[in-house]
Amino acid sequence: MLRKFSSSISWVECWLAAMLAGVVSILILTNVIARALSSPIYWVDEVAIFSMVWMTFLATTVVIKRRQTLSVTLVHEYVPKTVKKVLRVFSDLMVLLFSLLLLYFCMLWFEPITLFAVGFDISAFQMETFNFIYAETTNTLGLKKYLVWLVMPWVACSLILHASVNLWDSVVMVFSAQQDSV
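RESULT FIELD:
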């Protein structure tokens, strides 16, 4: 069930990343034409940058889920099959650890418990924590920056899900190989 959920989330992330790639292309083309006509649209650059950031993070989760990341395989090519499987477990474990740390740091950054405790009063939150994450706005759009940064906790949770499924598969592969050899 967890594997199906992970695959569904990955499919949505892949679709959103592809859509955002198209949006980035259209925005850049629009701004190139506007600048050629001596009428630049300044907010387009900002939306293109934010779209590219979201696209990159979403695509990263998909690539990690599918195990399609870049890797150096020099050691991997010269070790026995059992060591390869252990290295795969180690790699999945490191991705999971990274994901958990990312979520932890997002919790420190966004401080949702404190925000809830002050009744979502941004001023009270800022006075208590000296954290101005919810007050910062983008340069041209005037959009609250935390809305753009929400991709970080999403990616952390998504990576935890994908890395957990990958780690489970790797551990099962190691133990099934040991059972076969007995």
